[in-house]
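Quick check before the chapter quiz. The format below is the same one you will see on the exam, so make sure you can read both the input and the output lines.
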Amino acid sequence: MTASPLKVAAAPSTRIDRVFSPLGIEAWLVEDYTVPIISMDFAFVGGGALDAPEKAGLSYLMSGLYDEGAGPYDAQGFQERLDDLAIEMNFSSNRDRFEGSLRTLERNADAAFEMLALAINEPRFDADAVKRVKAQIVAGLKRAETDPDSMVWKAYSAASFGDHPYGRPDKGTLKSVPHLTRADLKATHDRRFSRGTLKIAVVGAINARQLGAALDRVFGALPATVMHDVIADVVPGGLDRRVLADLDVPQSTLAMGRPGLKRKDPDFMAAYVVNHILGGGSFTSRLWTEVREKRGLAYSVWSQMSTARHTASFLCGTATSNERVAESLAIISDECKRMAEAGPSAEELNKALKYLIGSYALRFDTSRKIASHLVEIQVEDLGIDYIATRNAKMAEVTLDDTRRAAERLIGDGRMLVAVAGRPEGITAS
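Here is the expected output.
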């Protein structure tokens, strides 16, 4: 059985070229001179999950220090140099990767790449900067101890992944962060990054020859490969458990989840459509209709497919008054089971496909978005033609596909449930 015929929206007219530097560093380039701006996004595979348990938060701390002084510039001098040249430079770290971005005017490209090269290769990790950024992280961790969203996901991750690195907070803990040292940062910098784990995308007013030279200038001094600790794949666990994080607030935050489908699973696209219909489509989803529109239980309710390098999860969540948590949980669970048993209707499928295909172009309305998406495609190993083929593949999803995917995604509906607050009628188990 197939959905109604769809007019497939044309893929964004984005020509993507593979560029290789003289040293063999690869980047994906979208050459565009519409405006004199260059946007670069890059990612090193390997993030907070590689931190030792007693060093949790090390990658996150390091990401906060790359623009706090490098080479001859201390923190103030580095920031003043960026400001003088209108250069935007940002770094971040999550469980699976260390990421960076650069945005500059074409006329300042040489200086911008020079500053990025210093940040990547010669971070100073000055004592005063380390102390200041650690204090900021510690302050954030203390705030998180009374934040329902932070508490519920900390409890959920620990219960779902246990001793696996994904079970630890990637921003660290109040116990680990104060004891991180400059020596820890230097050692991690020297052994964490390599050209072999690097994914790069560049969009804007630069040609392949100029980019090749810039790539070697910024990343050429890095080792070709490094030896990373092996992180095992993990299946989310704790199904049928209920975990409570006690917090004296009038509204509880609810998180629930189970194993999902990995990004390269043949049923991922169909499951993505299923999730959109169930809870990913905001104002049009089943969960929105049942939980908010019909009963007024919550301001927001959602579901999502979460993929990581070593696991995949299907997640749902909401926040509601303490006395209505049990009711909200029951409705979400029932809707998930109903989707698993019968799948979506033909009308739901057709509407979802029209939206998901038609809205894809919105991911490409700025150079920054294009560069970010291209790095994501590289990290997920989806192929350089993914943008051109994605909508056609989406349009091929049938009702039979969604029913099979819904059964695989949700199964018997058993989930790990975590609640932060003081919910009535819910006990830990």
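If your answer matched, good. The CA atoms of residues 162 and 168 lie 8 Å apart.
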